[in-house]
Amino acid sequence: MRRPLLPAAAAVLASALMLAGCSSTGGLRAEEAARSAAAAGGGSGVTTPRWTFAMVTHAGSGDSFWDTVRKGSEQAAAKDNINFLYSNDANTANQVQLVQAAIDQKVDGLIVTLAKGDAMKDVLAKAEAAGIPVISVNSGEEYAAKFGALTHVGQDESTAGKAAGAELKQRGRRSVLCVIHEQGNVGQEQRCNGARAGFGGPLQVLYVNGTDLPDAKAAISAKLQADASVDTVLTLSAPLAATALQAVGDAGRAAGSTETDTFDLSSQVVAGLKSGTVGFAVDQQPYLQGYEGVDLLWLYKYNLNVLGGGSPVATGPQILTAKDAPALAQYVARGTR
């Protein structure tokens, strides 16, 4: 049974989030130029109709990763003269209701995540019937074409997992604990399975509750105390990486004996790369996922362009290590990496 649409979520979807300004070459200079243009009352850089695009994600609240996705979307929307609506809910039934609300509003385009893809099948069929073009981002690449999406923007999670596994092997790790923080998330399962294939050595999976970080920390620590053979913790998000670093200390492991590696970036992860407490991070460029999700919809509406040729538009994986940390720091700090 579907839950009724939460009033707060409906209010979020109904509000338009606009950035006035223009973007040229990207980077810090373009961002500063956009702020200056906005302050001066400048408009977007295109003259196409003011279409309305809605993005509906499976993100929870207060997640810096999704703040970065959203920032990319908002900046592309400002450039493309788009009225941009953003809403999110980690509860799959509520995400479905948010997509339905966007369809009911007769938006001109939809950007969705498909972390638990099967649940989105019926509502995306309604979007297709209503003539609303859809692009999927981040999660659920395997569902995109089946559910009528123009393309998928993100990284192939199995490929990303294999890249992480290969890096673990190259670094001489012996036994890996892969921590899944959202049970039922297909992409996270694919990351761990890919890491196992790329690593070729012992890899165990530990399920924790990513919405309860103290409980997750305790679970990781208990596993490390129970199994002395584990010399590496691989987490699937930046917040869990910080939690794992604490868990390694709580488990009484000697400094340098247990490596923490992760997917995704944050200021803490970059600091860890610099200090050596984090060995490497797998970056999927969330800003780019949000930016391209909006931009590709605009290109389709304007010129019937579709990128990918039937294959996803890849934004990752990129393996980042200590040598990359100094250059990354400024972009992570401003929330675009």
TrEMBL record:
Alphabetized UniProt keyword annotations: Signal
CDD domains in alphabetical order: PBP1_ABC_sugar_binding-like
Subcellular location: Cell envelope
A family per Pfam: Peripla_BP_4
Superkingdom in the source lineage: Bacteria
Residues annotated as domain Periplasmic binding protein: 54-299
Family of this protein: Belongs to the bacterial solute-binding protein 2 family.
Protein name, entry field: Sugar ABC transporter substrate-binding protein
Species the sequence originates in: Streptacidiphilus cavernicola
